TrEMBL record:
InterPro entries: MoaB (IPR012245), MoaB/Mog-like_dom_sf (IPR036425), MoaB/Mog_dom (IPR001453), MoaB_proteobac (IPR013484), MoCF_biosynth_CS (IPR008284). Pathway: Cofactor biosynthesis; molybdopterin biosynthesis. May be involved in the biosynthesis of molybdopterin. NCBIfam families: moaB_proteo (TIGR02667), molyb_syn (TIGR00177). SUPFAM superfamilies: Molybdenum cofactor biosynthesis proteins. It comes from the Bacteria. Gene3D superfamilies: MoaB/Mog-like domain. Keywords: Molybdenum cofactor biosynthesis. Residues 11-155 form the MoaB/Mog domain. This is Molybdenum cofactor biosynthesis protein B. Belongs to the MoaB/Mog family.
Length: 175
């Protein structure tokens, strides 16, 4: 890769009724990985698993032209309070169907059939890419290392999501 990577600005949201800044290992792992890759962390927050509180934070970040990437962790399972997909899906202009499919394929090697309980999702909204990940730190590492690191790198060919959210590009750039 001869061209320089264009850093993106990302926000990280942890959805949890119990985690605090001190105990939020998943949000921390995502923040560390994106910064290690050369991206900027705009904001990191924790909200309870409440559909309207999740939606309010994600909608505000989608509306903020400075935020290009939103990563959420938590609330994607099947328990009674898991509501991240319901909160976020209505905000998306386009869904990235292959994200959940590829995540579950990668996750299969780590958690076996339990991967079917992951309702992770990805999408685009207002020139912002949004990825909703499970709450486990391992799942966040799997998603970042196996998918997001490349897809948020403007140099990744033949296509990536970075080139859709970089204002001067706003589309796929092919080799």
């Amino acid at each position: 890769m001869s061209e320089a990577m264009i850093p993106l600005t990302a926000a990280v949201l942890t959805v949890s009724d119990t985690r605090t800044e001190e105990t939020d290992r998943s949000g921390q792992a995502l923040a560390e990985r994106l910064e290690a890759a050369g991206h900027r962390l705009a904001e990191r927050r924790i909200v309870p698993d409440d559909v309207y509180r999740i939606r309010a934070v994600v909608a505000a970040w989608i509306a903020d032209p400075a935020v290009q990437v939103i990563l959420t962790t938590g609330g994607t399972g099947f328990t009674g309070r898991d509501s991240t997909p319901e909160a976020v899906s209505v905000l998306l202009d386009k869904r990235i169907e292959g994200f959940g499919e590829l995540f579950r394929q990668l996750s299969w090697h780590e958690v076996g059939s339990s991967t079917v309980q992951s309702r992770c999702l990805g999408g685009l909204a207002n020139a912002t890419v949004v990825f909703c990940l499970p709450g486990s730190t391992g799942a966040c590492r799997t998603a970042w290392d196996g998918i997001l690191a490349e897809q948020l790198d403007s140099r990744h060919k033949p296509c990536n999501f970075a080139n859709l959210v970089i204002p001067e590009r706003g589309r796929h750039v092919h080799a």
